[in-house]
Amino acid sequence: MPVPVLLIAGFLGAGKTTAINHLLTAPHGKRLAAVVNDFGAINIDAELLAGSAEGMVALQNGCICCTLQGDLLRTLSPLLRRNPVPNGIVIETSDVSDPAEIVRSLLDPVIWREAALEAVLCLADAQALAERPATLDDALLLSQLRAGDIILMNKADTVSEGQRAALRGRLSMLPARTILETRHGDVPADLLFSEERFVPQAHATLPANRFATPGFESLSWTADRPLSLPRFQAAISRLARLLVRAQGILHVEGQEHLLLFQMVGQRATFGAAPASPSNAALVRLMLIAEIGRLQPDMVHALLNDCRA
Fold this sequence. Notes:
Layout: E1 3-10, H1 16-25, E2 32-36, E3 49-53, E4 56-59, E5 64-67, H2 72-80, E6 88-92, H3 99-106, H4 109-112, E7 115-125, H5 126-131, H6 139-147, E8 150-154, H7 161-171, E9 178-181, H8 189-192, E10 208-210, E11 216-223, H9 229-239, E12 245-250, E13 259-264, E14 267-272, E15 283-290, H10 296-304
Parallel strand pairs: 1-6, 1-7, 2-5, 2-6, 7-8, 8-9
Antiparallel strand pairs: 3-4, 4-5, 10-11, 11-15, 12-13, 12-15, 13-14
């Protein structure tokens, strides 16, 4: 299985470094690797340091941090050879770069097989944008925001409710389907990195579960028959505008091997699925959305109609 990659973009001062610090040190149980442009900007408490080597710092929680050296593949290779392999890799883009170039590099088949792009998170400085609304018309900032699957409106506590509503209105015109408000770069790791939370039941069920991140919930669905791929794609297209992300193991009609399906923001991918337990359902799907956005009966009917 490839290691999931989270790409973090944003203008100077938006809080990218703070967000990376949070991901590296938060007690989420994941071994993360961070690839940053300015190694000195990652200010990690000395008590968390386990050791260091040239261009790389290890943390006691199993996370590591290194600088971007030359091309992306050369930087990622030593991380992917580590034992144990990281549960995820966070890559920081430059303040003055368009994330599209790194996205294209990560979609290269050679890299994709080892390190698959999971999501693009773009941080927006709520205070700066509220004080200078015209900044949202800057071509580079717009490119960064348009690349984001999720926009994190950081420093939301520094602006009024009316200013936040106005910013949400303008940001909602961009392709990202999810806009989160936060302060101090508090990034919800559960929303950004996928987990295998598929319920191994034999029949279709759709329980509603409160998700680990406040304000979100997950809906799990399983099926005992293969899916019609065209009908499944049509159903996901209808649900996509309501979702933060979706993931699952699919048995598609006419295909021998199981598929791993992942969707976040505008990006949906199919790949080879890992081996499943012998008692697992043929199809296991999890949908994540803001609480109240999904109607279980409607989703149940829509997905049941996808069975071959």
